[in-house]
Every structure is written in structure tokens, then in C-alpha cells.
Amino acid sequence: MRAMLTQALNENASLRSEIHVVQESNRLLREDNIVSSAAYQVRQIEILRAHVFLLTLKRHSDRMDTHCNALQSTHADLAMEVQQTAKERQVAENAIMTFEQKLKKHLDNAREISRKMLLEHEARYHYHDDVDGQVN
């Protein structure tokens, strides 16, 4: 009986040792679980921050797109105005050139008429001098 009691005490001690190992293992698992849970929460916060950052970037990108589109539209309008102004300038330059040519013709005609009138006047004047007997 003593042998049985000793065996029972040994088994009891062995079971207590195994229970202690299981309890220690359970405690370590709980600690690991707490650390893992904290790490998971930190990761979730990092993910949320990344989402907020991406949303902010998207909002800025959308604003930039809107601004770029407005600038492109303004550029297109200005380019059309520049083309129209260039056409108008060309028309004005052509009109000036035509006017200058007409003016030159009129001046040439006026000079020719003036020259002829001067010659006629001189001829008449000399003719009168010849008639009166006076020569200049």
C-alpha cells in the first residue's frame, strides 16, 4: 500500500508539474495574444492613416486636375484669340499695304499732273514773254 501511495504521490507530483507547465504555457500564450492584439491594433491604425493620406492625395489630385483642365481651357481660348489676332493683323497689314500702294499711285499721278501743269505754265509764260518780246 505504501508503494501505491508513493506511486500516487509521484503521479500527483508529475500531474502538478504538467499542470504548472500547461499554466505557464497558457500564460505565455495570453501574453503573446495581448502583444499580437496590440500589434494588430497598431497595424489597423497605420492602415487607417494610410487611407486618410490616400484620400487627401486623391482630393489634391482632383483639385489639380480641375485646375489643369481650367488652365488648358484658358490656354485653348487664348490660342484661338492669338490666331484671330494674327488673322486680323494680317488683314490690317494687307489693307495698309494696299493703301500705301494706292497712295503711292495717287502721289505719282499728282506729281505727274503737277509736272505737266508746271510745264504748261512755263510754256505759257515763255510764250507770253516771246509775244511781248521779252525773254527771261
UniProtKB/TrEMBL annotation:
This is Aste57867_7707 protein. The keyword Coiled coil applies. It comes from Aphanomyces stellatus. Residues 82-116 form a coiled coil. Keywords: Coiled coil. It comes from the Eukaryota.
